[in-house]
Amino acid sequence: PPDWYNVDFTLPAKLSIDAGRDAAAELAEWRAGLKTAQDHYGARGLDHDEQQRQWYAEIAARKSIAAELGLSAQDIATFGGHGLVPAPVPAAATTGDNDT
What b/e sequence results for 14-47 when a residue is b if at least 16 CB atoms lie within 10 Å of its CB, and e otherwise? Predict the structure, then answer.
């Protein structure tokens, strides 16, 4: 093909010796606007577009099942953070001040 050189690829996942600390730092950077969703997925060796499509497919499935059962989005959101609305993150998880 004439555009044989036009390719996309994703690097392998980044290694970490302290995944918890790295995750908390990444979340703080994302909330501050210093990282994008592509940065987040790329660090894990995942493709942003594929992950977004999966995320939205899961939301659509939840909505469909909820409608089937007569549940509202609020009903779903209240069950263990596995609903349509992400569960809030405790403040201690984002500050990094809880190190001893």
Answer: eeeeeeeeeebebeeeeeeeebeeeebbbbeeee
CB 60 within 8 A of CB 46: no
DSSP H helices, the chain, are 19-31, 37-43, 48-69, 73-77, 91-95
Per-residue tens of pLDDT for the chain, all 100 residues? 788 888 877 777 778 889 889 889 988 998 999 999 888 888 888 899 999 999 999 888 888 988 899 988 777 776 655 545 555 556 665 555 555 4
Residues ≥6 apart with Cβ < 8 Å to 34: none
What's the CA gap between 52 and 37, in Å, rounded? 9
